[in-house]
Amino acid sequence: MSQHLATVYWQRNGVTFTDNQYSREHLWQFDGGVKIAASASPHNVREPYANPACVDPEEAFVASLSSCHMLWFLAIAAKLKFVVESYTDQAVGVLEQNENGNLVITQVHLRPHIIFTGEHQPTNHQVEEMHEAAHHHCFLANSVRTQIVVETIASSPA
Questions:
Q1: pLDDT tens-digit series, residues 47-58
Q2: Are 18 and 2 in contact (CB under 8 A)?
């Protein structure tokens, strides 16, 4: 078992607050010391109360799922002796109402583009199998009800 620490910090900064016109900007700090400026999504809270330059929780959720999948994919590829030169995923999360009328991220579409290098190249079938295994092993994918769809983009040698 392991524990993972994140500290979230917000300050009122003297505004009235009860009129709902307060900044949603806040700070995420992680146990390694990294700090990330965060805010509510401007899709949910209008500017200036949300800052589109900051990471919002919905983006972080999508990025976390993408990152977890990628890390497992890389580990599996390395074990199979495939050399990954680069991995780029332009992941997209879909926020919509569920059957209970609650807003939820119902789907996350992972769109990895992977470039392999070297003599030992995987077949498309092997790439699909590696994605399936990565999805199966991803701690975060196993922790959510969100449908995760992997849409592979044809890979090419570097």
A1: 999 999 999 999
A2: no
* HEC assignment per residue over 44-69: CCCCCCCCCCCECHHHHHHHHHHHHH
Q: How many other CB atoms sit within 10 Å of the CB of residue 122?
A: 18
34 pLDDT higher than 90: yes
The residue ranges of every structural domain in the chain are 1-55, 57-150
Domain range 57-150, CATH class: alpha beta
Single-letter residue type at 153: I
